Amino acid sequence: MNITIKNTHNLPRRLALLGLFAALAVPAVSTAAPLTSDQPTPIAAGDDDDDPPCETAVIALEIDVTTGDVYIVDPTGGLTLTDNSLNIYFGTLSQVLIDIEYTSGNWEIDVTPDDETTETYQTRGGTLRYYITDDYDEYVLSSTELTGAASTMMNMTPFIPDIILQPDKDCPPST
Predict the structure, then answer these.
(1) pLDDT 10s digits, 53-98
(2) CB-hemisphere CA count at 13 Å for 158?
(3) Which are the contacts of 81, defined by CB distance < 8 A and separation ≥ 6?
(4) Signal: is it a keyword of this entry (predicted)?
């Protein structure tokens, strides 16, 4: 009888330890960063202002899978709507990192430089980083959804237009 009392007495401690272990072992849901509403409102695309500045080593693009819009993300987190065709001015740089982030889902991206052999990549967590050089006149990036998450949420297949990157060694003249 004394053993039964000890086991009953230790049971809450064991459950508490098991609960603590489970809480620490399971990743927290709060670590996901939701889109915040305090971001600047996207700016409409213009003829001259929708390309990234000259000699930018990293070009960040955000692709809204619900609308198919492609945005350039500036250093402050502001979004500028593009027309899906970007001039990338290298200046003295030998390569530029293209950092692509989709608003949801995982994607397969086909990269075709100047109608050469297509290279296929997959996003991880909706993001992909890809280096371009000025060896080619054009890179075409085509997207295909892998997970089906975006189409399940919207009950339709999202349409992401091709993104055309046009490397240029010379920076445009300053105005």
Answers:
(1) 888 899 999 999 988 999 999 888 889 988 899 999 998 999 999 9
(2) 29
(3) 42, 43, 44, 45, 50, 69, 70, 71
(4) yes
Alpha helices (runs of H) in 26-157, residue ranges in sequence order? 149-154
pTM of the model: 0.66
Question: Residue type at 111?
Answer: V
Show Cβ contacts of residue 96 under 8 Å, excluding neighbours closer than 6 positions.
Answer: 56, 57, 58, 59, 88, 90, 131, 132, 133, 167
10: enclosing H helix or E strand: helix 2-25
Q: Is 80 exceeded by the pLDDT of residue 112?
A: yes
Question: How confident is the model over 123-146, as a mean pLDDT?
Answer: 94
Cα dist from 38 to 42, 61, 79, 103, whole Å = 12, 19, 12, 16
Domains of the chain (ranges, CATH numbers): 58-168 (2.60.40)
Is 61 in contact with 101 (CB distance < 8 Å)?
Answer: yes
